[in-house]
Amino acid sequence: MNFLRRVFPIAGLVIVVASLSGCNILIPDVAADSPARFVQETSPVFYQPPGVDPRRVRPIPDQPVPQTRELYKTQFHQTFGLPVTNPVHMAMYGELRDEDFTLPSIPVSRVQPQFLRQEVDYQTTERPGTVIVDTKARFLYLVEGNGKAMRYGVGLGRDGYAWSGRGVIQWKQKWPRWTPPVEMVSRQPEVRPFAAENGGMNPGLQNPLGARAMYIFKGGQDTLYRIHGTPDWQSIGKATSSGCVRMLNQDVIDLYDRVPAKAEIVVM
Fold it and tell me: Facing residues of 204 across strands?
């Protein structure tokens, strides 16, 4: 009995070894350490397609990565998933409550982008705080110094009604009354109800001077020309007024708050 107990385990081990004799799991595969075999087994087949010499295949050059994305360059920008209007402009020109009046929002997508308020590089010999009106480009600049200026789009006077020169913004007014000059009343009788003898037009959203007015003097005399707001946003960038410099109401409020007292103005 004891003999059988000793023989059976040995016989079982012999049978297992015999059954595995056809496998190599008990023999280390030293060829697996061969670099040539590793390359052969791991090299993708598409690196060596039939009839193509991989040594003659040129790599695709790296494409330059854009450093600046002009997301809002035009109102028709086609960047998928992004707005076609700069949200900063929408905030700057949105509906605004100012004293007793609520200014409606400006449809900035319908205004040429260059006429929207923005800080720009601007080289000039004028000192900071000076207002410069470029009548050819339809821009108003407020000089900030260090080669910078705040730029606004403006509407200007028609030929024969424009003024140019150097003056002073003598005084400023919030929500001014509009009193057309005698010359305007004589050539436009429809404005006679608002003439000086009738007290002018009350402040309001339809007042031609808009939300703010800055009065230009030269040599101590009123030139009768103004920088003022306008409810007619479509006139910005055009020559349609009676000589004054008109701005979007949201812009003229911004300029009014920035311009110092008795600021110099140059219209060229």
Answer: none
Nearest alpha carbon to residue 114 among 95, 147, 140, 146: 140
Residue that wins the pLDDT comparison between 211 and 15: 211
Tokens of 99: 């004293």
For residue 73, what is the DSSP state?
S
| pTM recorded for the entire structure | 0.67
Residues 6+ apart with CB under 8 A from 137: none
Query: Helices (DSSP H) in 43-149: which residue ranges?
Result: 87-92
Q: Where are the domains of the chain?
A: 114-267
Strand pairing category for 212-218 and 165-174: antiparallel
Phi, psi (rounded to 5 degrees) for 226 = -135, 155
d(CA 257, CA 129): 12
Distance CA 72, CA 85 (A): 6
Question: Helices (DSSP H) in 223-262: which residue ranges?
Answer: 249-258
* Residue 204 DSSP label: S
* CB neighbour list of residue 200: distance below 8 Å, 6 or more residues apart: 177, 178, 179, 194
Where is mean pLDDT largest: 30-39, 84-93, 172-181?
A: 172-181
The domain covering 114-267 belongs, at the CATH homologous superfamily level, to: L,D-transpeptidase catalytic domain-like (2.40.440.10)
Q: What is the spatial distance between Cα 247 and Cα 236, in angstroms, rounded to a whole number?
A: 7
